[in-house]
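Following up on my earlier thread - several people asked me to post the actual chain instead of describing it. Fair enough. Here it is, all 452 residues.
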Amino acid sequence: MPTMTVPTLAARILVVDDEDALLKTFRYCLEAAGHGVVTARSADETLRRVQDEVFDLCLLDLRLGTESALDLLPLLRNAAPWMRIVIVTAYSSVDSAVRAMREGAADYLVKPCSAEQLRLVATRQLERRRLELRLEEFERKSGAQDEISPTTSSSPLVRHLLETARSAAETDANVLLLGESGTGKGVLARMIHHWSRRASGSFVVVHAPSLGGDLFESELFGHLKGAFTGAVQNAPGRVSQADGGSLFLDEVGDVPLALQPKLLRFLQDKHYERVGDAQTRVADVRLIAATNRDLSMMVREGRFREDLLYRLDVIRLHLPSLRQRSEDVLPMAERFLAGFVAAHGRRAHGFAASARHALLGYAWPGNVRELRNVVERASILCNEDEVQARHLGLGEPTATAPAAPPRPPSLEDLEREHIRAVVAASPTLDEAARVLGIDVSTLYRKRKQYGL
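Reply from S.P.:
Thanks for posting it. Predicted structure:
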């Protein structure tokens, strides 16, 4: 089953029948309910449709001329194992429909049927599909490590970052998130998707460091059964799953150099091929990439393609480390503590002075993720009303290197990032100049000044 976020009510439905009148009737009823409908009249056409597109539901007539859905059903289950299939049958063939359900169909519908019966069957299957996706999303989130939202912040750096992110979210421009591990890049990527016009689509994650070589290509673009050892069934790939939504490519600096041209090509024209398949496909995907590496250095060292970096780096957002937003340490620690005390049934309700001093004096190399883990451990170890420094396990604060107050962004920094975001979000430079309240010549001069 592909990993994706829960879809909205509107779904993509494939209707298969050799009668034009029935196809038109089903299409009308389902489109009136807000669904996208594609039709097919033969087994071969059905398989081509399923290989080209991703469908949530298939309404499959039991008889397609001389062909039987019982023969087509296992091929569809292999090509799209996540797709729910409803057999459409005449009264005299109910026994065959029941046999089809034993072989993987989800339900059957007896024709002729009313529009209400059709919509009821479709709604029931789509709701079951949504429940499957909701469960998968819950399981994915429950195991996520990077789950700290940067929205609750007193830092001017973070507030400005979020303003720029909101502006970028309104466009389809590629976004590159930079920052140390644990700063919340994955969370910000999800927020950008949520703020965008693609919010009702899927938010799909590919974690590059966990993949390599052919495995990365297969995960990203999909593969056909038998394309390599272990490919026991067709896989649509994350790009296909993200069609109409956003793809988050985590740690893009780990993408193998040999596969970077294929990623570049997809970013340029949205075209790709699955492993083991010569057929070219198209997907409407907005890419959000993240890394804690210096990609410019990697370009100079020949480990990352310069043209790929240009494609990724349309909107650049740099997440500050926790050391740069030290005013957030205590408020975040207190929120974490309240949550963990409630979850684990512990008694601590705050931090003692010694613990507050230790929290502020620590450098937090693991950033927000480390802070969260430290507070969770302390909430479990503490059997007192207040967490003490010893419960944190941070050692003595360093007298020589106290947490430095963050440097507020300069007016020049703010102007540069604001102009970058507005230009990226505007269809023309004239429109960008109008939004900024300056003339085009001034905008040209500013862009040259800031190297935009």
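The mean pLDDT is 81. That should answer part of your original question.
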